[in-house]
Design brief:
Order of helices and strands: EEEHEHEHEHHEEHEEEEEH
CATH architecture: 3-Layer(aba) Sandwich
Radius of gyration: 17 Å
Strand order of the largest sheet: 4-1-5-6-13-12-11-8-9
Strand content: 15-25%
Helix content: 25-40%
CATH class: Alpha Beta
Number of domains: 1
Distance between the termini: 9 Å
């Protein structure tokens, strides 16, 4: 069987002394996980808008974590849903799925997606996400890759969910390094896992014929079969 091509969406990096003012970054751990699971990782080069041909060549997509959600991320989510291609969003990627879900519920004939997003932000104190009170849910200002075990906490997973079919357990410990929570969720999506303090940890498209899922925690740091399930779903749909 031909290996599925997985488009990895770049994350935005602010100027940190680099010769350029800003640049896109691809974290190698996602590519390694895709390769180990039997897929072909491809980093998509994107300017303001993504080319339809880039999306058409991919069998599935991964939205990386990061600090700024750019317009083309929502274009990828929209394409994945309309074409039933698997999508995995991690940390900021899960937040992008949530924001998309809310905007999609509120788009009207007189508005496009960008206008709706801008209006909803203005109506909700400037953000469709809720910043956590202590800046992140573990009380640490920053957690490095070397000590991410300090960020482990328990989550409870809804048994009627894609997540449960992947992890096959109702409770597990996960590493979280986010400092936002979803403020609201669109009608075609649902939260299927929570931390003990009520913070949302997994969001899914509310249709099990699709594989559209976002994990607020860093599933790439865990010894799980998430990436294998993701690749298997891509193979099923690329036949």
């Amino acid at each position: 069987m031909i290996k599925p091509i997985i488009g990895i969406i770049p994350t935005y990096v602010e100027n940190d002394g680099h010769i350029y003012d800003e640049y896109d970054k691809y974290m190698s751990i996602y590519g390694r996980k895709v390769k180990e699971a039997g897929g072909i990782p491809v980093g998509l080069i994107i300017e303001d808008d993504i080319l339809p041909e880039q999306l058409d060549m991919c069998d599935g997509f991964i939205i990386q974590g990061g600090h700024k959600i750019r317009r083309f991320v929502y274009q990828v989510i929209d394409y994945a849903i309309k074409n039933n291609k698997p999508l995995l969003g991690i940390c900021m990627g899960s937040e992008a799925i949530d924001i998309y879900s809310v905007v999609a519920d509120n788009v009207s004939i007189s508005e496009d997606i960008e206008a709706t997003y801008k209006r909803l932000k203005e109506e909700n104190d400037g953000s469709l996400l809720r910043r956590l009170a202590d800046n992140n849910m573990h009380g640490n200002e920053f957690v490095t890759m070397d000590d991410y075990n300090n960020a482990l906490h328990k989550i409870t997973i809804d048994k009627d969910s894609i997540a449960y079919s992947i992890f096959e357990k109702e409770e597990m410990e996960v590493p979280s390094m986010h400092n936002y929570d979803y403020k609201m969720v669109g009608s075609n999506f649902k939260v299927t896992a929570y931390a003990p303090d009520g913070v949302s940890e997994i969001i899914e498209y509310n249709n099990k014929d699709y594989f559209i899922i976002g994990t607020h925690f860093h599933v790439e740091l865990m010894d799980t079969n998430m990436f294998k399930c993701f690749i298997d779903e891509c193979k099923k749909r690329s036949k």
